[in-house]
Amino acid sequence: MPRLRDFRNYSYQASRIDRCGRDIGSKRYWKLYAIENTIRVIIHSVLNVQIGIQWWDNAVGPTIKGRARDVRARYAGKPQNANPGAHEIHLVFLGDLTEIIRSNSHLFTPVVPKTNQLIATLEEIRVPRNLVGHMNFPNAFDRHAIDNAYSQLPALLQDLRSRNVPIEVPR
Fold first, then answer.
1. Which of 17, 35, 105, 168 is deepest in the core (most CB within 10 A)?
2. Is position 20 within any domain?
């Protein structure tokens, strides 16, 4: 199978753009989707156990809460669009999720011993996530960072299960 090449380096052909889109979607986007949403589940599960059901009110800073309110308001103004989710954690971005973990690391470390490694891994995929999310073509370094972050999810979830933290989807 020939190596896929970034369409931006060649003259315009719709088929090149289509091939790049299919490749990125089938090899990278779904992993970023899984990473970001699994991190939401992990944050919710840990903080729900450590703080309680109202963890968002107690563990999230005003800047992130404000961004979530703004996003909620934009969605409320467009009721014809899909709802991103009832819980506020569905309204924030990867950088915000990383900051929630960082600012509550004292609550994460007892159940996720490699919390600092998790934060570092999430920081490593911020740029690749934005590249893919904004329909750009990731390079080998970016692809490796995404693959590496994705490969760590099973161990993170196992750490939680082994410490009797119920895995709960935020609703």
1. 35
2. no
